[in-house]
TrEMBL record:
Classification of source organism: Bacteria, Pseudomonadati, Bacteroidota, Flavobacteriia, Flavobacteriales
Summary of the function given for this chain in its UniProt record: Has an important function as a repair enzyme for proteins that have been inactivated by oxidation. Catalyzes the reversible oxidation-reduction of methionine sulfoxide in proteins to methionine.
Sorted UniProt keywords: Oxidoreductase, Signal
Species of provenance: Croceivirga thetidis
All residue ranges annotated as the Peptide methionine sulphoxide reductase MsrA domain in the record: 48-199
Top EC group: oxidoreductase
Record-given protein name: Peptide methionine sulfoxide reductase MsrA
Family membership: Belongs to the MsrA Met sulfoxide reductase family.
Name of a matching Pfam family: PMSR
Active site per database record: C55
Keyword RNA-binding attached: no
Length: 224
């Protein structure tokens, strides 16, 4: 029982919004895994998809592990304010949510598969909260860029609901995509570069491992 209490205390003592830039830059990784790098010009050859499901450090790492995904960018979307900052979004001073921009090859993975990854890697019944992170900036959003993507999301939602996958109603927002604002550079690839960060160890890595356990068929070879 004592171990359980200590674990809960550790998780709730850390959160995506409590890490300052200075703290983040002090987090040192003993070995940063290699990652294929694409230029902005090369990225234009791929499709994009946008999702929000809690702290973007966690969400970025999850989609980075999926085959067919070429790049994932952490940022902000779903709100009205221009040029949002981490401090403003993280402390709920905007209408944005922490979100990710996913570049993917549709010849290797479909938009439907990405939607499945999205729903399968977080709790879509949790309103304005994921894990220890609370507030509308951590709400669940599936963005669509066109009517076909909207149809894919809505049909999958209907399937989840009709199959009674969850005990509670799904609260995910299905929202027309408008603008994505890239987060500050120190947030990019945060989990990969900072495996010893307290939040990463207590929240991000366990969340990633749960996803890997349930979606083995979607993983890149190096992610197994």
């Amino acid at each position: 029982m004592k171990k359980v209490i200590l674990l809960v205390a550790l998780i709730f003592a850390t959160s995506c919004q409590t890490n300052t830039k200075a703290q983040n830059e002090k987090a040192i990784a003993h070995q940063i895994p290699e990652k294929e790098v694409f230029s902005n010009e090369q990225l234009q050859d791929f499709e994009t998809a946008y999702f929000a499901s809690g702290c973007f450090w966690c969400v970025e790492a999850i989609f980075e592990s999926v085959k067919g995904v070429k790049e994932v960018v952490s940022g902000y979307s779903g709100g009205k304010e221009a040029n949002p900052t981490y401090e403003d979004v993280g402390y709920g001073r905007t209408t944005h949510a922490e979100a990710v921009e996913v570049y993917y090859d549709p010849q290797q993975i479909s938009f439907l598969a990405l939607v499945q990854v999205f729903f399968g890697s977080h709790d879509p019944t949790s309103l304005n909260r994921q894990g220890p992170d609370r507030g509308p900036q951590y709400r669940s959003i599936a963005f669509y860029k066109n009517e076909n993507e909207k149809k894919v999301i809505e049909q999958y939602l209907e399937l989840l609901e009709s199959s009674n996958v969850y005990d509670r109603p799904i609260v995910t927002e299905v929202t027309k995509f408008d603008t994505f604002w890239k987060a500050e550079e120190y947030h990019q690839d945060f989990e990969r570069k900072n495996p010893n960060n307290s939040y990463v160890r207590a929240v991000s890595i366990p969340r990633l491992n749960r996803f890997k356990e349930n979606f083995r068929e979607y993983l890149k070879e190096e992610a197994h």
